[in-house]
Design brief:
Shape: globular
Structural class: mainly alpha
Low-confidence stretches: none
Distance between the termini: 68 Å
Number of helices: 29
Length: about 600
C-alpha cells in the first residue's frame, strides 16, 4: 500500500476522532496536525532518487519535534513563556522545525511566502540595528525558538489552530461530497438552468464554480476541478480561449467569498473577531451575490456581442436528479447545524457521516472501502498547501506581535493617511493585493490581520467591516496581475496567453474591487439596517452592476460609443455607492441610456 494512503488515512481518522470526541490541547493538536502534513509532503517530495532520499530523511526528521512535545507535554504545558530556560535539545529541535516548515512551504506554496517568512525572521534579529520606524529592541535566538516551537504564538498559532480543527474537517467534507459526483450533478443542473441560453457554458461555469468553490477551499483547485469541464465547452461554442479561462478563474475565486462555507476562511475570521460564523456568512451573502451577478451579466453580454450559442445538457434532468439529488441532504444538514449554533467541527463531522450514509442509496454515489481510503488520501494532500501556508503565516504573525511591528505598521497607515479613513482604505487595498500575490487566501488574510486591519479599526471602521474589507482583497489577489495565480492555472487549461487571461479576469471581476468600498460607505449592503435601507440598497446595487457590465463590455443590444460607455460607468459608480442623492443621479443616467437605446438607436448602431 502506498505510504500516502496510510498517512492520509491516519490523518483523516485523527481529525475525525477529535471532531467527534473533542480536540487535544492546542499545542498537541496543532503539532500532530503539522507533523502529518510534513511527513506526507516529504514522502512525496520528488521523482529522482536523490530527491526521494532527501524527502525520506526530512520526513523522519519531522517526527522528532512532535515526539519531544508528546513525551514532555506536561513539562511544556507548565512552562512560563520567555522565563523558563530553553534546553540545548529544544534549541536543536526548534531550529529543525523552522527549517522543515520553510522548506515544505517552498515546495508546496511557493517562493513568495518563503521570502516573506525569511524577511520577518531576519527582521526579528536585526531590529536593534535599524533606524526609526523599523527599530525594536530585538528578539533573541532563544526567544525565537521558544515562541515558534514551545508556544502557541508562532508556528503553532491561530492560523494552524484553525487549520487543525475547522478547515481540515471542511476539506474532508468537500472531498467526500466531491467523490459522490456532486460536481457533475451541479454541472448538469446548471446546464439545464442556463446551458441553452446565449453563452450557456460560461453561465454554467459561473453557477457551478460558485457552489463548488464555496466548499472546495481553494480557488486554484476549483479551477482545475470545474474548469477542466467548463473551459473546453466554452471554447467549443466560440468563447475566445483567454476569455474562457478568465471566466472560470473569476468564478472559482468568487467561491471563496460565497456562503455558506466561504472556503473555510470564514472560520479564521470568526477566530480573530469573535463574531459567530453564521453572522459572518450573513454579512458576506449579498456582496457575494453582487459579485456573481456582475460576472453573469458580463458573460451574457459577451455572448450577445459575439452571437455565441448555448449547449444541450448531456443528460436529461430526470436522470440527473434521480442519480444525485439525495446527496444534497448532507449539505442541507451542514447548513442547518451551523445555523442552529453547533460548532463547525461538530457540524462538519456529522455531515461527513451523512455523506457516507446517503451515498449508499444510489449506485452512482456509493463509496466502497477503496474509494473512502482514496478520499482520505486526497483530503490529506489537499490540506498540505493549507497546513504549510498557515504554519508560515504563524511565523509572520508571531514576529509581528513580539517585535511590535503590527502596532507600528497600523500607526504608520494612520499617520501617512493623515487620519483620512478613505486614504487608509486605499493603502490597505494595495497592501492586501500585493501581499496576497502568489499566496493562498488564508495566510494573505492572516498577515493583514496583524498589519493593516488594526489601523482601519482604530480609525472607526467596525471590526466585521475591516476584516471583510481585507478578506475581499486577499481573495482578489488571485486574479490580480502580475501574479494572478488562479487566472494562470485557468490559462493552462484553456491553452491561452496567461498574461491576457489575467488582465481579462481582472476586468471581469472588477466589481469585486469596488464592493468592499461599497459596504464601508453603506453597511446595508451587509444586510444591516432598516428593511427599507436594505431593499433600496439591493435594488440600486443590482442596477448599478448592470450599468457596470454594459460599461465594461461596451455593448447592450448593440455596440455603445465611448460617450455612452462612460455614462454607463458613471451610473454604475453612483448606484453602487449607497445614498439617495447618488441613487437618483444614477437611475437618471440609466433611464437616459435605456431611453436613448429604445427610441433613437437602430439595431446594430452605436448610440
Amino acid at each position: 500500500m502506498r505510504s500516502g494512503v496510510v498517512i492520509g488515512t491516519f490523518f483523516a481518522l485523527f481529525h475525525l476522532y477529535t471532531a467527534f470526541f473533542g480536540t487535544f490541547d492546542a499545542l498537541l493538536q496543532r503539532s500532530i496536525h503539522l507533523t502529518f502534513g510534513l511527513v506526507l509532503l516529504f514522502l512525496s517530495y520528488g521523482k529522482s532518487k536523490p530527491q526521494k532520499w532527501f524527502g525520506v530523511a526530512c520526513a523522519l526528521l519531522s517526527l522528532f519535534p512532535l515526539a519531544y512535545i508528546i513525551l514532555n507535554y506536561p513539562a511544556i504545558q507548565g512552562r512560563f513563556i520567555l522565563v523558563t530556560p530553553v534546553s540545548p535539545l529544544e534549541y536543536v529541535l526548534g531550529v529543525l522545525l523552522l527549517l522543515l516548515v520553510i522548506e515544505a512551504t517552498r515546495k508546496v506554496v511557493g517562493a513568495t511566502l518563503v521570502y516573506l517568512v525569511l524577511v520577518f525572521l531576519v527582521y526579528a534579529f536585526i531590529g536593534p540595528f535599524l533606524p526609526g520606524f523599523f527599530y525594536h529592541p530585538g528578539v533573541s535566538f532563544r526567544d525565537t525558538i521558544e515562541i515558534h516551537y514551545l508556544s502557541t504564538e508562532g508556528v503553532f498559532g491561530i492560523p494552524l489552530g484553525v487549520s487543525s480543527t475547522y478547515i481540515v474537517i471542511f476539506i474532508l467534507f468537500g472531498e467526500f461530497i466531491r467523490q459522490t459526483g456532486i460536481g457533475h450533478f451541479m454541472y448538469d443542473v446548471s446546464a439545464h438552468l442556463a446551458g441553452k441560453t446565449r453563452g450557456g457554458p460560461a453561465k454554467i461555469a459561473v453557477v457551478s464554480s460558485a457552489i463548488f468553490g464555496s466548499i472546495s477551499g481553494s480557488a486554484t483547485a476549483n479551477v482545475v476541478t470545474t474548469g477542466s469541464v467548463t473551459i473546453p465547452i466554452m471554447k467549443r461554442v466560440g468563447y475566445r480561449p483567454h476569455v474562457a479561462g478568465a471566466v472560470e478563474a473569476v468564478a472559482s475565486t468568487g467561491g471563496q467569498i460565497m456562503p455558506p462555507l466561504m472556503a473555510a476562511t470564514a472560520f479564521v475570521m470568526s477566530a480573530f473577531t469573535g463574531i459567530s460564523y453564521i453572522t459572518i456568512c450573513k454579512y458576506a451573502l449579498f456582496p457575494a451575490i453582487l459579485y456573481f451577478a456582475a460576472i453573469f451579466m458580463i458573460v451574457h453580454l459577451e455572448a450577445e456581442k459575439f452571437n455565441l450559442k448555448g449547449v444541450e445538457p448531456e443528460r436529461d434532468l430526470a436522470s440527473t436528479l434521480k442519480a444525485h439529488t439525495h446527496m444534497i441532504f448532507p449539505i442541507i444538514l451542514l447548513i442547518y447545524l451551523l445555523i442552529k449554533g453547533f460548532t463547525p467541527m461538530f457540524a462538519g463531522a456529522y455531515s461527513i457521516l451523512a455523506v457516507l450514509i446517503f451515498s449508499v442509496f444510489r449506485h452512482e454515489t456509493r463509496m466502497g472501502p477503496a474509494k473512502i481510503r482514496d478520499t482520505f488520501e486526497q483530503s490529506a494532500r489537499s490540506m498540505l498547501v493549507v497546513i504549510m501556508a498557515c504554519a508560515a503565516a504563524g511565523i509572520i504573525f508571531g514576529v509581528t506581535n513580539f517585535t511590535g511591528l503590527g502596532t507600528k505598521f497600523s500607526a504608520a497607515i494612520v499617520r501617512i493617511s493623515g487620519g483620512n479613513l478613505y486614504m487608509a482604505m486605499v493603502m490597505t487595498m494595495f497592501a492586501s493585493l500585493i501581499l496576497g500575490m502568489g499566496m493562498p487566501t488564508t495566510p494573505a488574510y492572516v498577515i493583514q490581520a496583524a498589519l493593516t486591519i488594526p489601523a482601519l479599526i482604530s480609525m472607526g471602521l467596525p471590526v466585521h467591516v475591516a476584516h471583510l474589507f481585507v478578506f475581499y482583497y486577499s481573495c482578489m489577489s488571485l486574479i490580480t496581475p502580475p501574479v494572478a495565480v488562479t487566472a494562470y492555472a485557468a490559462a493552462g487549461i484553456a491553452k491561452a496567453d496567461p498574461w491576457k487571461t489575467g488582465w481579462t479576469a481582472f476586468k471581469i471581476g472588477i466589481v469585486a474591487y469596488i464592493v468592499p468600498f461599497m459596504f464601508v460607505f453603506g453597511q446595508s449592503l451587509l444586510l444591516k439596517g432598516t428593511f427599507w435601507e436594505i431593499v433600496t440598497t439591493i435594488i440600486s446595487a443590482l442596477v448599478g452592476v448592470f450599468a457596470l457590465a454594459i460599461g465594461i463590455e461596451g455593448y447592450w443590444q448593440s455596440y455603445l460609443s465611448f460617450l455612452w460607455r462612460g455614462l454607463a460607468l458613471a451610473a454604475a459608480v453612483l448606484l453602487i455607492f449607497p445614498g439617495y442623492k447618488t441613487d437618483v443621479l444614477g437611475f437618471a443616467l440609466v433611464a437616459l441610456i435605456v431611453f436613448r437605446k429604445k427610441f433613437r438607436a437602430e439595431k446594430g448602431e452605436k448610440i
